Amino acid sequence: MPDMLRFLIMTLMAVVMAGCSDGTAPTPQTGSITGTVVTETDAIPVPSAVVSTTPPTSSVLTDAQGTFTMTDLQAGTYVVKAEKSGQGSGTSQVAVMGGKTTQCVVIVKKPDPTKGAITGTVRSAADNTPIASALVELVNTPNNTLTAADGTYAFSGVAPGAYDVRVSKDSLGSLVQSTTVTAGSTSVVDFSIRVAPLPPVTDGLVAYFPLDGRGDDISGRGYVEDVTIRGVDPVADRKGRAGSASQFRGTNESFLSAVVKQGLQDMPLTISWWMRRTAPATALESLISKYLHPSGEGVVLVFENGNLTAVYTTDTFANYARIDVPEPQMDSWNHCAFTCSTSGAQLFINGELAMSVPWLGIPSNSTTDEVLRFGLTNSVASPGLRPDPYAGQLDDVAWYNRVLTPQEVQTLSNDR
User: Fold this and answer.
1) Are 262 and 406 in contact (CB under 8 A)?
2) DSSP type of residue 9
3) Are 181 and 209 in the same domain?
4) Which residues pair with 188 in a beta bridge?
5) Hey, which residues does 397 pair with through a beta bridge?
6) Best exposed site among 37, 166, 186, 281 by fewest CB in 10 Å?
7) Strand boundaries in 278-390, DSSP class E
8) Domain end marker among 86, 108, 130
9) What residues are paired with 230 via a beta bridge?
10) pLDDT-above-70 percentage for the chain
11) What CATH number does the domain containing 137 carry?
12) Are residues 187 and 221 in the same domain?
């Protein structure tokens, strides 16, 4: 560190240690910050730098000598940030005390010209308000941060290349957007996510898809990594709320797929969903699956020959629990829940137990690495033998890592 810069910092630290002056704070509950913004290499003052704080307060500009003053600040800890185009940026953490003035030095560093940056703001889609403390990650890198009180986030010193930026928070939509970083530039990635309520039963919830026009998992449990939703139309849900359910078109281009962690399919489990068929089912039609047809390994919910069929199978159908019950009434909303454990499986329709079956073979967890799919099942069978895509509506798909009680299933079914 240059001698001049070291001398300046040591001098100001001595002032702070000896006690801050008290001439600028108007009341004992508020204090002030005064400081100087200097360059990293030679401690030259930086005029006209923008100085701001986190938590946010009013921004100020440095004067010709690189100094600034911020008054009427509530007592507490602040991160003071200074930045100026061409000079770079820097931060310093300070503690503000009531009736006192805290002094600080902010050292600005020029950005690495071989690196770039990613910045953005996370806001609510409902009212555009900023969302604080949301987790923002650069996927497949160790870089992550939390949004500030004003919803902003930033990654600096990012190597050029293509990145996926993911934002998530409990009870908020988890979204991923792609961007490309180039040397010496800043990529702006803003997010607009909606707040949605969790289902009335949350104990053991590991994934929850409200399906209100998007495919997000909003459980915040981290089992779902990436979601693709294509050719799915928002429609009114069972409560008549516009755009709060999803219509699947019955084509191979209408589906939702989600990359999930391996443990999602482990027993015990419960899958809860609402559905409304809008066309008669074909002889074999997809609904929800984590399964490669016809491998005999995974979890699959389908319509087959007039029945709603739920299967948990392992080892090429050597071990399985399978339930077939008559398909629920078409053109009406029906709640369904499928539970599976080493004791067997159950299928509930509109809160009532429709069938319970034991395991055939040896109960064991599926090891399939297939993605979770709604509306379309991945199949390697010849075209005429593949399950048809789903034509109908889906809503509020919830996945639990335990067997729900009949009373809990009834609670979910009563949420009409």
Assistant:
1) no
2) H
3) no
4) 119
5) 209
6) 186
7) 284-293, 298-304, 307-314, 319-326, 334-341, 344-349, 352-357, 372-374, 378-379
8) 108
9) 255
10) 91
11) 2.60.40.1120
12) no
